[in-house]
Each structure stands twice: as structure tokens, then as C-alpha cells.
Amino acid sequence: MFACHEVVNGPTQRIFYQLFRDEAAFAVHRRQPHLQRFLAESRTHVLATNVIELRLGAAKLPLPAPDHQGR
Length: 71
Known about the structure:
Distance between the termini: 28 Å
Number of helices: 2
Radius of gyration: 18 Å
Strand content: 15-25%
Largest sheet: 2 strands, antiparallel
Shape: extended
């Protein structure tokens, strides 16, 4: 999944989120020729990048109680 957000009061800034099924899917993505081409060609249009890798972990949140209608 990919999502792109504009930065409020930052008209030249964008935040991109990428979510992959697992490490293997991410590795396949990185090897794609279209991605390699994009990375090479986009460098002339980008002033700076900041990459932050996030990892999903198990959430420990209470589940809502089921309603009385069986949902």
C-alpha cells in the first residue's frame, strides 16, 4: 500500500508511506526496474530525503465488547 500526503505550510514537501506484506515483498519491490529507474531519475527533482523505517508489532489493545445484535 502506498499513500502520499502534502505537508501543511510546506508546499514543496511530501510524505510517502509504504506498507508491505513482509520483508520478502519489500525486497522484491526494491529490485523492480521501474523503481530503480524512478530512484535514479528523481534525484534531480528532490532536495532532500528522510527515510524512517517503521516496524509493526503486536498491539495490546482491549477489544470492544460485541453489541447485542450479534455483530
